[in-house]
Amino acid sequence: MERKGLPADKQDLLTAENYEIYNRDLLRKVFPRIISELKVIKPGTKAGDVIALYFFLRTNVSDQAALKNGEPNPKYEACFMSQEQIVNATGIGINRIPILVEVLRRNGLLSDVKDVWEGTNRYIYYYPSFCPHISDDGFIVDNWGEKVVPDYSGIESKL
Questions:
Q1: How far apart are CA 99 and CA 50, in angstroms?
Q2: What distance in Å separates the CA atoms of residue 88 and residue 94, rounded to the nearest whole number?
Q3: Tens of pLDDT along the chain (159 residues)?
Q4: What is residue 76's DSSP assignment?
Q5: Is residue 133 within 8 Å of residue 141, measured between CB atoms?
Q6: 66: helix, coil or strand?
Q7: Rounded Cα distance, 37 and 2, in Å
Q8: Could you give the 3-state DSSP secondary structure of residue 31?
Q9: What are the backbone angles phi and psi of residue 64, rounded to the nearest 5°?
Q10: How far apart are alpha carbons 145 and 155 in whole angstroms?
Q11: DSSP symbols for 106-156
Q12: CA distance 60 to 128
């Protein structure tokens, strides 16, 4: 039996291994909940930027587990793009990136954020969560089966 063609050359992407899997409930449940919560706190905020930032960070994680010398890569599974690169790719204002990163972290969409110095160079490593478990009401469920319910106290004025 002949296979039916997949839309928009999906088969080409699968064959070339140039694709990424994401949990569709992120866009169906999680981000709408986050955006609603942020708009309650600050109605005029560009809350939807959190989506672009999350997918930019997810798309740009390092998949190189080991360095050329065989040692473990400290950047493995982290996005370490500069804030300038993030701004250029997403259009998000540079001053908003840290607060949106904090929103992602508090919602369980970033498992870790590390501030790293290599000599005199500063890097921020972002570790996006792949969020395999999402509750019916749009919350990330952590590895211990607990809902990650964000507390926005302390950042409301920065949104």
A1: 10
A2: 10
A3: 565 655 566 667 677 776 777 889 999 999 999 999 999 999 999 999 999 999 999 999 988 899 999 999 888 899 999 999 999 999 999 999 999 999 999 999 999 999 999 899 899 999 999 877 999 999 999 989 999 999 999 999 898
A4: B
A5: yes
A6: strand
A7: 48
A8: helix
A9: -95, 105
A10: 26
A11: HTTSEEEEEEEEETTEEEEEEEE-----B-TTS-BB-TTS-B-----TTTG
A12: 10
Q: In angstroms, how far is CA 127 from the centroid of its own chain?
A: 8
Compute the Cα dihedral for 94, 87, 41, 133 and give only its sign: negative
Q: Both tokens of residue 20?
A: 């990424």
* pTM for this model (two decimals): 0.87
Coil, helix or strand at residue 7: helix
